Amino acid sequence: MRDRVETADRAGTPGDLLLAWYDRHAREMPWRVGPAERRAGIRPDPYRVWLSEVMLQQTTVAAVRGYFQRFTARWPDVAALAAARDEDVMAEWAGLGYYARARNLLRCAREVAARGGFPATRDALLTLPGIGPYTAAAIASIAWDEAAVVVDGNVERVMARLFAVETPLPDARPELTALAARLTPRQRPGDHAQAVMDLGATICTPKSPACGICPLRTPCAARARGLAAELPRKRAKPAKPVRAGVVWALLTPRGWLMERRPARGLLGGMPGFPGDGWDGAGGPAPAEADWREAGAFRHTFTHFHLDLRVLAAFGEANPLRGEIMPGLDPQSLPTLMRKAHDLAAAALSSR
Q: Helix, strand or coil for residue 288?
């Protein structure tokens, strides 16, 4: 591995090349303090860095922009978010998925507010709820200029290609992390981390990397060997299992019958239609009613596919099952339940 690093260093100091490229081509994002602003003495807000990093987990920049802007308009600092009602935050989060992140977001905001602010080191950040090694390193690096090693999928891809690491992921992660650490500078570590991520997102992309305009094209070992498009290699993933289930969408004179899902587990803490147990919970239909087929669809979770039937009906709610939600805004529902709502609403409106 040391030979790989030294070869790249002799070929043109990748760190310097990256920072020079970033100074010219850094992406503009609502949570980012760009190179010119940094030179003018503007410092990143750790709250905005933290919020964006949590939102970006398993999600794209394009999907996050609107959510981030709405969150920061409504809760402009960590104290405001800490004081928010759980249901308000969960409703704003709806559609971003991975709802445990929203629950941890609130837990972390309240802990930070109780401490009087975000800690300034990676190790201290790791003591906060919901903050793991990647997020802690990103906040410490970007907000506090600690030379912490930030490694996400973009960084792994850039390292694998720059040093022609052919070991498949996830086995290659320790080596790729060590290579990223070797390149992380003491000066401008936050800009360096964002430069590598920007490079992976815009030029060193998973498919058809634009090697001809890459600032690391000269020292890149994979490009020299004609391997760039093949790396990083990955172990074959097993096929996702498929589950089947039903939800009952009951529309009463006062609104839709919904239930609040348990805090832990799939769609934790979010409102949803009663179901038949596809998630290990559930029970019988919520009321005697004239159920009709509203449609079916497949929804993919991290670990399985769900084929879901939607049954819809007009009727009175069983008071022992769920609660009536008058004036329900479908946009406040998680994506799975919003799809079910749309099918049910269409089926009932046609009768």
A: coil
Pick the last residue of a domain from 188, 210, 230.
230
Range name among 24-38, 87-101, 163-177, 196-210 with the lowest pLDDT average: 87-101
In whole angstroms, what is the distance from residue 117 CA to residue 47 CA? 9
- In the chain, the largest separation of any two C-alpha atoms, in whole Å, equals 76
Strand partners, 169: 234
Q: Quote the tokens at residue 217.
A: 């094209």
Q: Residue 121 falls within a domain, yes or no?
A: yes
On whether both 221 and 247 belong to a single domain, the answer is no
Length of the chain: 351
Burial class (CB in 10 A: 0-12, 13-18, 19+), 297: middle
- The one catalytic residue in 6, 28, 37, 53 is 53
Alpha carbon distances (Å) from 162 to 11, 199, 270, 272: 11, 12, 43, 46
- Sign of the dihedral defined by the CA atoms of residues 11, 12, 17, 18, in that order: positive
Q: Is 53 annotated in the active site?
A: yes
Residues 170 and 81 sit within 8 Å (Cβ to Cβ): no
Residue range(s) defining the domain that contains residue 270: 242-349
Token pair, residue 3, equals 């030979």
Instruction: Examine the pLDDT at 22 and tell me if it is beyond 80.
Output: yes
pLDDT category of residue 259 using cuts at 50, 70 and 90 = confident
* Pairing relationship of beta strands 305-314 and 242-252 according to DSSP bridges: parallel
Task: For the chain, give percent helix, strand, coil, nearest 5.
Answer: 45, 15, 40
